[in-house]
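Subject: sequence -> structure tokens, single chain

Hey, anyone have a minute? Need the predicted structure for the following. Not urgent.
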Amino acid sequence: MKAYKIYKGAIAALVFLICCYLFILNTVITVALTGVLPSQSNFVLDFVAGNIAATAAVIAAIVFAVRSSRVRAFADRLTSPEKYDRVSRILIYLIFAIGALWSVAIYSCGQHFDSLEIMQAVYGMSWNDFTKFGAKDYFSIYPNNIGTTMIFYVFSKFCGVYNYLALMLLNSVFIALVYYDLSKITVKMTGSRKLGLAVLAAGIFFLPVTGLSVLVYGTVPGLFLAVRSLRFIMDYSSTHSRKSAVIAALLIALATVIKNNYIIFIIAFVIYLAFEALRTGRAATLIPIAVMVVSFLVMSSGMKIIARSVTGCDISGGAAKLSWIAMGMQESSGTYNGYNSDNYVLCDFDADREAALASGDIRERINEFTQSPTYALNFYTRKVAIEWTNPLFNAFEPVASLLYESDNIPEWVWYTLSPRGIAAITSAEDVFLSLVYLGTAAFVIASRKEKLLRDAVLPMLIFVGGYTFHLIWEAGSTYATPYVILLLPVALTGLLRMSKSIAGIDLKHLKAGNTRVSGAAVFYCLGAGAVFLLACAGLGTMRTMLAQNRSLYKQYLADNCSDLRNVISDGTYIIKPADEAYQGEGVTVSITGRCSRSRIEIMDSGLYLTESDSEEDGIGITDFSYSEDQSFVILKNSDDTYSIVTGDGKALCYEPEGHMFGLSEFTDYLGNFSTEYYGEYIASHPEQTWKIVSAG
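Reply:
Had a minute. Here:
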């Protein structure tokens, strides 16, 4: 039992220290995207006083609710036996509705990166084309995505290939079920239906999770399976039901087949069950461990065997695992930068050679960190911030990077994903995230002597595992989402207990000095103090970066909030090249805009500028159609000229010889909203700039 107490205390202490650290970082800085990729992340210095005030205001509101008899009576009515199930269902339906609405609104954007690679592989399999499974193609680098691909292939037999909408709606169902399971876990853990409803209510406000519904990848279905298995494992620990153990083992094994990162859950389950066996003295508690490990090995190897038999291709082990660790130590704050795939290709798809190369790079980085502890502190502060202080967890990245490739997007989506819209959502979710970290730390203190802490050990252990793993592995805020959402039951419980403690403070009692300081209180105070100093030291190394990035972020908002959408009002204009050598009168056109796109009609002709498939023309003038080839993005440049851009990285250009209008490659401005090099690009490509003046 002593070993169990040490284990439980160690988990509680680690969670407390980590959450205190994350609370401080999240209060001081926000990782805000000035683009849609992690490489465009800015470490923005927050309005610290405002963050603290907003957090305090929420806690004050909870304190008021705790003390208000009317609020308590209302909560009692909601959680009465005759109403609780109905209210729960309504909240679950709302969570699904948010994800479904988001999915329906943006599904026409399609997918990119790994999601697109997987769908292309599924499409190829439908025609017996297994190119993606070749010795030097996608799955030879990323065999971890084979499980998702095989499941999507089966799904395509019923719903077709590239049916993103069906998969997004299925994701929305899974997300709603994740919150349903978390609510059940909360009620079982705390015995409070009010907290169970609070978890569901939090699901409505935690937009990054519902935003993941658009990610056609293994993250969401894997999360559902992992959380459902967590629920069964916790049930097994109290009932010792063999059925619960087997179901939990099968679910988590399937989750890891879909998304390898959920192996962290398996490791946590094994540790948890081993210590439960030690606590209860029941050797039978170890049986689920064997079932879990066997299930995982059978499913993971079985999926590769199935893939090999279907495709006829040998499935390699992929890029060396050490390359992910080496990439996690790269100067790009440990985020994905192509190091693993690039080096794998460089080593001619030889994992052993790549592992040796990665090992050398790891040693080199360790030497750098050892020789400069200040730099190491700066690096890991940035790496932790990238993953845990991005309030949106990159949930909107899949959409934002594809917005300009479709003109079938509702206007409210454009405003939501505009720089100003994203900034507003980021500010709100930033406070939410701070409350999660603060509430979790408060939970540890308030529940350290209770059975409640024992019940909460497993989700906290998974959180510690995820935090530790991504300190070593490639970092990415999307990866942190499953671990943050697991904190909701303990965080909300901690916030409620902290609020009740504040509401029950007796000032006269405190003034009389009738207080006693326990050894545990001293430990937590010293721990919090040490974490505070560590955070201050790390943030101190980023002082110049924070000031610069805050300034850049403000400039980015000023430059983009109005200029990314329909900078030209509907009307009649004259378009002519900005080139001073041009002596013509230009072309009179009628411009009509919607969201970010504009149609350009040659005046009084019924003909529109149209992107042409012909390499000779590049641009054409044809009758009106509903094709996106006739819709353009008009960007205003700093010198009062304009660029007229397609959704696939090309721009209208002036051709002095032959046709006036041509089409040429354009900077990747639309995909990342980054203005850093845009001015330089335009200055060096004057043929892509135009004067647009009113013809009225």
